[in-house]
Amino acid sequence: MERVRGRFVVLAVTGSIAVYKMIELARRLTQAGATVQVVMTRSATEFVTPLTFQAITYRPVEVEMFAMQDERAAGHVAMGREADVVVVAPATAHVLARLAHGFSDDLIATTVLATDAPVIVAPAMETHMWQNPATQANVSALRARGVRVVEPESGPLASGEAGPGRLAALERIASAIDDALATSGALAGRHVVVTAGPTVEAIDPVRFVSNRSSGKMGYAIAAAARDAGAEVTLVTGPTAIAPPAGVRTFRVESAEELRDAVLATLPRADAVVMAAAVADYRPIERVDRKLKKKELGRELTLRLIENPDVLKAIVAARRPGTIVVGFKAETGDATAEAGRMLREKKLDLVVANDVSDPRSGFGSEDDRVAFVSADGVEQLDLLPKSDVARRLVAKLAERLGSP
Ligand code: CTP
Hints:
Elements: E1 8-13, H1 21-31, E2 35-40, H2 42-45, H3 50-57, E3 62-63, H4 70-75, H5 77-82, E4 85-91, H6 93-100, H7 107-114, E5 119-123, H8 127-131, H9 133-144, E6 148-149, E7 153-156, E8 162-166, H10 170-183, E9 191-196, E10 201-202, E11 208-209, H11 216-227, E12 231-236, E13 248-251, H12 255-265, E14 271-274, E15 281-283, H13 293-296, E16 304-306, H14 310-317, E17 323-330, H15 334-345, E18 349-354, E19 366-373, E20 376-384, H16 385-400
Parallel strand pairs: 1-2, 1-4, 2-3, 4-5, 5-6, 9-12, 9-14, 12-13, 14-17, 17-18
Antiparallel strand pairs: 7-8, 10-11, 15-16, 18-19, 19-20
Helix pairs in contact: 1-3, 6-9, 11-16, 12-14
Bound molecules: cytidine-5'-triphosphate.
């Protein structure tokens, strides 16, 4: 927990039996050199007294009052502004709902609304409440806005039942805090352009040639770069997922549109991350009326032509110092192919992904990638895409240094 030294951590504790575990977290954070400001809901104080936290953090604890006057909440905007990280743990279904809907009538909600710092929530509740679509929708909404969710674990619950809902182990919450502080502000003042999703190459107004890219990786990178303080432009092909909030998003269809959109942003870009799965070919001619089977006959030959190489165009047009990252998805030796692409296309970094493993690659939640650069090959374990994205953002920050 070395990153917490000298940082201001707001620890918001809400009413769950798991409250007692936060005494240990507050102790570890304080011992590691953080200033820990504990905020408790009334119901949290039913489990542990504020005095316990006060004795451990050497600071008076704020106790939430429901139906707090707006003025008092407004006075506490300062806490959100001062925070380096806001941790809501344990987070009840109730507080998740309040945060998801942007309430501002109590201290915890106001702090989360007012802060630019990373926000971490560690839910803890009974299994059915956790699995309820209302709770899951609230968690998704928070995630989409960049809130880091430390998922609960499965195990025995206070209700006597067993299942998902137990507060995550302290080590996981502590490492989420460390991660949040690692990239927080690391890309402040930088402009990162990310491409994502497939491109769609029209045959006629209703038919097209495309690929299976979900866009998840690129969207996760855009979110991670935003969380690290960058100004982010996302150029995306059509996807089924919502782009992250707080990111300037341009929607494109074809490879040519994607290239033009990226080139337009290039003069102001400090880094370009080409996570889009650009279709390698497009139909030679696009017909602007729907083709009829009658005119096509029983056999159809589609003539395709190679699309422009967007990476090549970027490398040719970039100003010195702009970092360019390519992606290489392979069913064979992805790392070797990535190394070849790095040299041939004069890239700074290539993310190699072995898509023959069904747990990794198109549409999956996780990826097993390697970062390939002039420094060598760094193989990562199978990780959630959001973790891969954060690692990549840390690499960009390392290469860019201070603005
Ligand atoms: N890319 C690009 N322009 C294209 C095609 C791909 O800029 N017309 C980018 C992608 O965004 C990705 C990388 O190039 O970052 C993928 O490289 P590529 O060698 O085209 O990968 P594959 O399509 O897997 O190549 P191949 O099919 O030849 O193995």
